[in-house]
Every structure is written in structure tokens, then in C-alpha cells.
Amino acid sequence: MAVEELQSIIQRCQILEEQDFKEEDFGLLQLAGQRCIDEGHIDQLLEIIQNEKNKVIVKNMGWNLVGPVVRSLLRNEKEDKRKCHFLLLDLLVKLCNPKELLLGLLELIEEPSGKQISQIILLLLQPLQTVIQKLRNNKAYSVGLALSTLWSQLALLPVPYSEEQIQADDYGLCQCCKALVEFTKPFVEDVIDNKGNSRENEKLKDEILKFCLKSLKCPLLTAQFLEQSEEAGDDPLKCFASEIIGFLSAIGYPFPKMIFNHGRKKKIWNYLEFEEEEDKQLSDSMASLAYLVFVQGISIDQLPMVLRTEESVFSKGLDLLENGLLRIEDSSLLHQYLEIKSFLTVPQGLVKVMTLCPIETLRKKGLAVLQLYINKLDPQGKYTLFRIMASLNLLRYLVIKDNEKDNQTGLWTELEKIENNFLKPLHTGLNMSKAHYEAEIKNSQEVQKSKDHCSLNVGREEIPNMPPEMQLKVLHSALFTFDLIESVLARVEELIETKTKSTSEENMG
Fold first, then answer.
1. What average pLDDT does this structure show over 41-49?
2. What angle do CA 469, 473, 479 make, to 5 degrees?
3. Where are the beta strands (DSSP E) in 144-274?
4. How sure is the predictor about 425, in pLDDT bands with cuts at 50, 70 and 90?
């Protein structure tokens, strides 16, 4: 019955011109075709589609049958039936209008959720690639639309973290990453082969660049990589990272150029969207790229010879910083570097990890990296950074480890003295020092206008003839150090308040 109904629709449309096909004809053909598929009449459907008389009908309307074929494929597990379905799908991809097919395939990719996301992506990547390669116009736009849709769906899949999860690949993310590389390769080759700076080629390059940057952020920023061993075999996510970095290099964005250019005012691309994303996606992508290269060692040979979740991101940041510090000799960093604000933000960030991070292993790693950082400073740099930080960190540690009820260290017995003789005076001293330095900055700015030199006392020793520009840097550096101390002090007081409040509530209960 379904086959006869389909043949009736086909015969009625055979006498029509292409422009006379009506919307209801598309719907009727789809319903009849779906019934044929559901009832198992695949051979008859293949015969109708291959009939030369139906060429124009199939070209214009056949794409409506792709959805029913794909859904049936996902339901059927019998190999003989699947072969017929694949043959039917390949035939539709070959004969139907590629523009309509592209939109139809992307709609199908967007439909599923959960584990079906990877199933349909793996099923449709090859047909999608074929369809895009058949397009004559707006190829770059179509590639970008496809890559964006695929990435959006992949971003919904959970990233495996343990070796067992990676090998099991329950949600198919690792398989999809591997297949996505093969999908993208021909378009990367198109960019390489078309050496001329045609507008279409530049657009294609931009679309691939966008996809690579997105992939660096998800899934690669939160991915855990397997330790190198024969038992572990090839890490699929690390292989994906290597391919993405290779794509960037192939289209003219080698990672040294991207990493060393990041943060400069002059960008390496002319695409406005990337500049608008600078403080959002791009920063995460660059951190991920730096981690992959400097910590995981992916494509590090390209360098000239002269970053689950928050846990995973923090861990990668600490690994990257540790890796960089280990390359520097102890006591070799000049104290003048502490006048650079971005250089001084490093210990401040480490202190935040040590005091605010809920994960114990990361807090310990933060402390170890801070100690490593301090070891790299010259003696005056250590003095500048330390001041009273060691005392505050010790106090913080004791408050965390020793409850008021246990009082094993005697801290809580002496708490009133500590608050009166250390914390409160420190607050006062910080406020006075900040006010003093702010006034000195104002005075220094006025002196700078007269281009006179001034002197500064450090440890009762006069440093003569300091240029106003240098004095301003020193003063700002001191203010920033006060802020660092103040942030740790605030955390210590917060911990004390939480512990004493908890003990009071227990006593009342």
C-alpha cells in the first residue's frame, strides 16, 4: 500500500515542471517514503529513486527522505537492513540538491541528545562532507555552518577524565573528535592549495580558525590527558589536540605566532569577531594552547631555539606555571620585575588558590608553586614579596587545621592577643601605608612634571637620583603588595569568624 501511494505521487509529479512542485507534494512524498521505509520496502524505494524518469523529482524532493532513512538506521541493528539503508542514503546524497541536503543534514545533527549525539554525528559526517564539496557557491559559509553546528553538539557531551572513561568512551566524544579531524582535513587542504588570497579562501581560513579556537576551549581545556605508556596507547584527545594545532599551522597561524602575539594591541587576524572575543573565548583558547605546547609538549619543536571543569583548568594553569619556573635558575629573577603588575599578580593568584580553592590537592600544589616562584627571586625580591606574608599564611594554615574545640596548637587560647597585637595593628598599618603611598604617588606625579630627580629611602639606605618614572613604578608596586597582603588578611579573618561561629552554634545546640 505504501509503495503504491508513493508511485501515485511520483506519477502525478512527473507531468509537472520543476517550478510547479507544490509544498504539499514535498510533504506527501516524505510521508509515503517514510511508510515505505517503516514497512521494509527499501528495494522498491531504491528502484523508484534510481529511475531516470524521476531524476528531477528526486533532485528537488528527495532530501526529505534523508531524515526517515537516518532515524531508521539508528533504530535498526540488523546488518543486512543497515546495508540497504546506507545504500539508500548514499544514493540520496548523490542525487539530491546539495543546498537542501546541507540544511537537512544539519537539522538532523541538531535533533538528538545524550548518547545519540555521537551516533548521528558519526553517521552523517561523511555524507555532510560530500554534500559541502558538491556546493559551487558559498563553500566557506557552509563549512563554517557545519563546523559550528558539530561543535555545538560536541560541547554537550561530557568530557572523559580517567583512563577507563577515555577507553570506554561511553558518550562517543573521542570517536567524534577523531572523525571530525577527517571531516575537516579536505577543507584545510583547500586553503593550502589555494595560495592566492582570494576572498572566499580567506573566509574559509577564518571559519577553520574559529573552529580550532573553539576546540581548544572545549573539549581540550577541560580534558585530562593519559600518561605516556605502552599500556595506555594513543590518547585520542591528545591526538585531537595535535591535529588542531597542526590545522592552525597549516592555515597560517602557527602557535608561536598566536601565543606570543596574544595580548598585543596589533592582532594577527583581521576578523572583527576574534577581537570582540579577546577577553572571553580567545583567552581560554590561548591558555589551553600554551598548556598543550609547553606542558604536554605537543608540537613544541616549532618553537624558535632562543590551561573538569574548574579543577582541570586550575590544575593546568598550575602545571604551566610550574613548568615555566623550573626552566629558570634559582635567585635569578631581578627584584625590578616585581614593578611589573602582571608579574606581581602571579603570587596573588596563587594565594587565592591556596586560600579559596575547595580542592586540597590544588591548594597544596598552589603552595608548592608559590615557594618555587619565591625561590626564583633575587634576595631583594624575596624581601619585597615576603614582608609579613609568611606569618599570615602560617596563621591561615593553623586556623584551617585546628578547630577551636580541639585547640591542639593553643591558637584559640591566644586568639584575642593575636587579634589585638597583630591583626588589628596590621589593618591600621596597611591603611596608613596605602594612604601614605597614594599621597607619594600624587607628589611624584607633580615632581615628574618638573622633570626633577628625587631620592628614596629603603631600609634606612638612600637610593639617590631616582627618576620620577621609576619612583612611580616602585610606589605602585608597593601598593599592589599591600593589596596582596590585605587579601590574605581578609581570608584569615573570614576563617576565624566561621570557626568561632560554628563552635558557638555547637555549644548552643
1. 88
2. 145
3. none
4. confident
Q: Is the dihedral of CA 44, 50, 56, 61 positive or negative?
A: positive
Other Cβ atoms less than 10 A from the Cβ of 292: the count is 27
Q: Are 172 and 157 in contact (CB under 8 A)?
A: yes
Give yes or no for a contact between 21 and 58, defined as CB atoms under 8 angstroms apart: no
3-state helix, strand, coil in the chain (%, to 5): 75, 5, 25
The tally of CA atoms less than 13 A away on the side-chain side of residue 251 is: 29
Nearest to 122 by CA among 75, 180, 82: 180
> Residue 430 pLDDT > 90, yes or no?
no
Q: Contact, 58 vs 18, CB < 8 A? A: no
Q: For residue 170, give the amino acid letter.
A: D
Give the DSSP per-residue string, 11-77. Answer: HHHHTS-GGG--HHHHHHHHHHHHHHHHTT-HHHHHHHHH-GGGHHHHHHHGGGGHHHHHHHHHH--
Name the one residue in this structure whose C-alpha cell is 534523508: 66
Average pLDDT, the chain: 80
What are the residues facing 18 on neighbouring strands? none
Residue-level length of the chain = 509
Q: How many Å apart are CA 62 and CA 57, to the nearest integer?
A: 7
Greatest C-alpha distance within the chain: 103
Answer for the pair 33, 27: CB distance below 8 angstroms, yes or no.
Answer: no
Q: CA angle 416-422-425, nearest 5°?
A: 110
The x, y and z cell numbers of residue 115, run together, are: 548518547
Cα–Cα distances in angstroms (integers) from residue 303 to residues 257, 290, 293, in the given order: 9, 12, 9
Q: What is the pLDDT of residue 220?
A: 94
3-state secondary structure of 212: helix
Write out the DSSP string of 165-199.
HHHH-TT-HHHHHHHHHHHHHHHHHHHHH--S--H
Least confident of 162-171, 216-225, 299-308, 433-442: 299-308
Q: Residue 224 and residue 162: Cα distance in Å, rounded?
A: 7
**Rounded to whole angstroms, how far apart are CA atoms 487 and 343?**
17
Q: Which of 185-194, 348-357, 405-414, 498-507 has the lowest mean pLDDT?
A: 348-357
> What cell does 351 get?
594565594
Q: What is the pLDDT of residue 396?
A: 82
Q: How far apart are CA 480 and CA 402, in angstroms?
A: 31
pLDDT band at 482, cuts 50/70/90?
A: confident
Q: What does DSSP say about strands 454-458 and 461-466: parallel, antiparallel, or unpaired? A: antiparallel
Residue 371: burial class (beta carbons within 10 Å; 0-12, 13-18, 19+): exposed
By C-alpha distance, which of 190, 242, 188 is closest to 215?
242
For the chain, the first-to-last Cα distance in angstroms comes to: 78
**pTM score, two decimals?**
0.64
